[in-house]
From TrEMBL, chains A, B:
Any Pfam family: NUDIX
Lineage: Bacteria, Pseudomonadati, Bacteroidota, Flavobacteriia, Flavobacteriales
Top-level lineage group: Bacteria
Organism in which the protein naturally occurs: Olleya namhaensis
Record's protein name: NUDIX domain-containing protein
InterPro entries in the record: NUDIX_hydrolase-like_dom_sf (IPR015797), NUDIX_hydrolase_dom (IPR000086), WH-like_DNA-bd_sf (IPR036388), WH_DNA-bd_sf (IPR036390), WHD_NrtR (IPR054105)
Domain Nudix hydrolase: residue ranges: 6-159
DNA sequence: ACAAAAGTGTTCTAAGTACACCCATGC
DNA sequence: GCATGGGTGTACTTAGAACACTTTTGT
């Protein structure tokens, strides 16, 4: 198994998870920690994205799927390959060199970066072999390698994509309220949206379906629940070439 | 120099060139031809994208820039890295295997695909060491490797991108007529656009500047010339988060 | 009864869409 | 003077933007 790794090629995964309760868009990161064997000095103590070498027999998409499964146990989540990072010096700051000395890494490693969209509630971090933790996109910790850059580029891509495609619903539970969708847009884009205009716009979409259900267990007026129908979306959607530049 | 190649990593370039006269969006391809040494049977006779291995000391962007320069002599053209292709079997059809036997290629090569936007008139194919030729995007020849797939994905990305960013002007001469812009949109998107509505829309953009010039040397009524101002575009442009999904 | 969040309507403005003829020029 | 492509105007429809109060529910 180990022998099948392509040593200069990896996939890194930016796992976005939205927490409906705290209204926070988070990124799942794993701890990187290394103490000197001799002086017990802490050499490396930060966070990185999950990633792994591409194996010789698998596609890039397979690698990403495998990496996500090992971290979260989840499969079939929305994923997107968004950029390759391959600068010759991307792994060459001192902390990273110390770390790499412990691992079977080529110095010149190209990484194909993916991002995933899912709900934090679907991930159980307790039974996790990595020290994985959610961080709000706006309060990232100290990051190793070029992973801060990768995360920020993923985030830019996500911002753009959520305006033109209904990927926002990948971040929400199957049943959601209109206000939850609005909160999510506001979190991602960092803007305020007028509630009346937003409701009208969303409710008028045929692929947003009002359910015969309301929230339960909330301590105030329970809100109407809706679902998103990918089927209806696909059927009605024909690209309508709106040249806005 | 040769020794610095990363054997399992390449960059392939989809060079889009627009010909204002023939109103054709073209792709620049190079000939791939191989005869058997013994039977003089033609083993390979098709076209491929230009590409080359990434060198150990250069960034991916550098590789793309170098490849374009070697093919066309041009630098400073619009380029975009749009996708990595790395399936284990992407180079394994019989014709490709014959070809690869002649070259220093790993079977499992990952390619980072870029596309370029330029004007066919800027490229001089006469003094070209490759047998390079323009092909209309809708009449591509027989293509080697997975290059047809790569071209079609580049084209999809271009279609999408030209709707939201002013990259269309990279394909046009500095001074252009409104109808030339319309023709270009129609070529790329494969749609008809109402001329009156299009003119109004375009002329109202502050970054489209009417010049004190008309076409010369045309055999009919000469049209008003315009230019695109990237400066004005950048100054006025603030992303206006229009949620359309 | 009160706190909290859900939900509701109208007016104005900007932009898209549909549609058919005259005009200026080079030859 | 005529063929060719350049250029023009109006009415309608749709969607976005601005804006503040009432309703429902659980506690």
């Amino acid at each position: 198994m180990e022998s099948e790794k392509i040593l200069n090629l990896s996939v890194d995964c930016v796992v976005f998870g939205y927490d409906t309760n705290t209204k926070s868009l988070n990124v799942l990161l794993i701890k990187r920690y290394l103490k000197s064997k001799f002086t017990s000095e802490v050499l490396v103590d930060d966070y990185v994205l999950t990633g792994y070498h591409v194996l010789k027999t698998e596609t890039l998409d397979d690698t990403a799927t495998r990496v996500l499964k090992e971290l979260t146990g989840l499969t079939d989540q929305y994923k997107k390959q968004f950029k390759a990072f391959g600068d010759p010096d991307r792994l060459t700051n001192p902390k990273d060199l110390v770390w790499i000395a412990n691992e079977a890494f080529n110095l010149r490693t190209i990484t194909i970066a993916y991002y995933f969209l899912l709900k934090t509630e679907d991930v159980n971090l307790e039974q996790n072999t990595f020290e994985a933790k959610w961080f709000p996109i706006n309060a990232l910790p100290d990051l190793g390698f070029d992973h801060e850059k990768i995360i920020l580029e993923a985030y830019e891509d996500l911002k753009e994509k959520c305006l033109s495609e209904p990927i926002i619903f990948k971040l929400l539970p199957d049943k959601f309220t209109i206000n939850e969708v609005q909160d999510l847009y506001q979190s991602i884009l960092g803007i305020d949206i007028d509630n009346r205009n937003f409701r009208r716009k969303l409710i008028n979409k045929k692929y947003i379906i009002a359910l015969d259900e309301k929230q339960i267990g909330v301590s105030k007026k329970p809100a109407q629940l809706y679902m998103f129908s990918m089927d209806i979306y696909n059927k009605m959607f024909s690209k309508n070439y709106l040249i806005s530049m």
